[in-house]
């Protein structure tokens, strides 16, 4: 498997609607918690800002808020 194959099979990048659709099968299967990961330490601060201000609010709007997150954001 090549890096391009992995990138084609998972949602990457800042496209919020693409992430919403990528999570849909998991939400429909009943998952209430997900793990978000950023690969590449040089962009970690930007990812955390994006996740906090754009991605997580959009996921909550689309699928609801989990009652008790496993890891709480401070």
Q: Number of helical runs?
A: 3
Give the fraction of residues assigned to helices: 40-55%
* Average pLDDT number: 84
The largest β sheet comes out as: none
- The secondary-structure class comes to mainly alpha
Q: β content, as a range?
A: under 5%
**Which spans of ≥5 residues are poorly predicted at pLDDT below 50?**
none
Overall geometric form: globular
Q: Name the assembly state.
A: single chain
SSE string: HHH
Can you give keywords for this protein?
74 residues, mainly alpha, single chain
Characterize the structure shown.
- By secondary structure, the chain is an all-alpha fold.
- 54% of the residues lie in helices and 0% in strands.
- The chain is built from three helices and no strands.
- The longest helix has 20 residues.
- It is globular.
- It starts with a helix and ends in an 11-residue tail after the last helix.
- The model has no long low-confidence stretch (mean pLDDT 84).
């Amino acid at each position: 498997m090549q890096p391009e194959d992995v990138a084609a099979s998972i949602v990457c990048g800042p496209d919020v609607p693409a992430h919403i659709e990528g999570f849909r099968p998991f939400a429909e299967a009943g998952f209430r918690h997900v793990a978000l990961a950023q690969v590449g330490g040089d962009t970690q601060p930007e990812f955390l800002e994006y996740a906090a201000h754009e991605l997580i609010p959009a996921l909550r709007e689309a699928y609801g808020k989990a009652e008790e997150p496993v890891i709480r954001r401070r």
